[in-house]
Amino acid sequence: MDSDPLLSNFYGVGFRLCPTPNAQLQLVLSEDRDIDLVELEKLCDAVGWSRRPLRRVRKALQHSLLRVGLWRHDPRVPRLVGFARCTGDGVLEATVWDVAVHPLYQGAGLGRQLMAYVLDRLRTMEVERVSLFADPDVVGFYASQGWELEPRQRRCAFWYSP
Amino acid sequence: MDSDPLLSNFYGVGFRLCPTPNAQLQLVLSEDRDIDLVELEKLCDAVGWSRRPLRRVRKALQHSLLRVGLWRHDPRVPRLVGFARCTGDGVLEATVWDVAVHPLYQGAGLGRQLMAYVLDRLRTMEVERVSLFADPDVVGFYASQGWELEPRQRRCAFWYSP
């Protein structure tokens, strides 16, 4: 299925189909298809994140190591229903940010498939270590996928620009 | 002092002198001077970090957002005695890695000056948020410099390449 020539026209050669219980639904992961910033903003609205200026989001995406979208396939207008991105040097370190699945599509294992796709891509780059900051409500989600929580009792720290 | 034309030949225009109690010691921070990989390896050895292949370190440094060295100035051979680097998109997120000060130069406030220099550079880029993973023995070091520890009870998680 992953070599479907039609889907690769939409999503590039690196796309991956997500199996779902609903056979009529085609959900596609890809790092190749461009992310529409207005669609991404709608997705972030839907998961309750605060808005950021589009020009800054555009620049941040351009300077990311990896941008992955999850689309509900529609030959007329594919709809962005999930997203994740990574920053990093692509060798020793990568950091995952902004993991989102639209609330209407949650509970079907898509977040897990999105993260598996992200890690597969980072593995291909031979990145040694991947890190992320997990909010309390998603700690279990990551722990169940083999992420080590606070190894060596490391603590996360943030500094916000004044 | 920061406009010393001699020092800028060595360290570039963005260098900063670190005040120290010892007037004979000139310690210079800079993001402009190239990091010698063999010197960096010696510094990492001195602080007890495990070695990594130089070609991978070279690539990681090339793909970093910021690389800052701290040198003990010597007109013949400046000596690298401190280091820090950041990855990130340079807009929304930056992450600090590999903060090191040579044990012989610790205890004089140089780590603090190194971090202040890093944050000044990130501020100039207008990065919104800076993150890091603090080992237990340096949590107090960062907390005393205005870093928020585990804000919103976020937890750090790592995934290591098999």
Structure commentary:
With 162 residues, chain A is of the alpha+beta class. Chain A has 5 helices and 8 strands. Chain A has helices at 5-11, 37-46, 54-62, 110-124, 139-143, and strands at residues 16-18, 27-30, 66-72, 79-88, 93-101, 129-134, 148-149, 155-160. Chain A is globular. The termini of chain A are far apart. The model of chain A has no long low-confidence stretch (mean pLDDT 94). Chains A and B meet through α3, β5, α4, β6 and α5 of A and α3, β5, α4, β6 and α5 of B.
Topology:
Two copies of one chain form a homodimer.
Chain A: H1 5-11, E1 16-18, E2 27-30, H2 37-46, H3 54-62, E3 66-72, E4 79-88, E5 93-101, H4 110-124, E6 129-134, H5 139-143, E7 148-149, E8 155-160
Parallel strand pairs in A: 5-6
Antiparallel strand pairs in A: 1-2, 2-3, 3-4, 4-5
In total, the number of strands of chain A is: 8
The main β sheet of chain A shows up as: 6 strands, mixed
SSE order of chain A, one letter for each helix or strand? HEEHHEEEHEHEE
Radius of gyration of chain A: 16 Å
Quaternary:
homodimer
Q: Tally the helices of chain A: what do you get? A: 5
Kindly state the percentage of residues in helix of chain A. Answer: 25-40%
Fill in the keyword field for this structure.
six-stranded mixed sheet; 162 residues; 28% helix; alpha+beta; homodimer
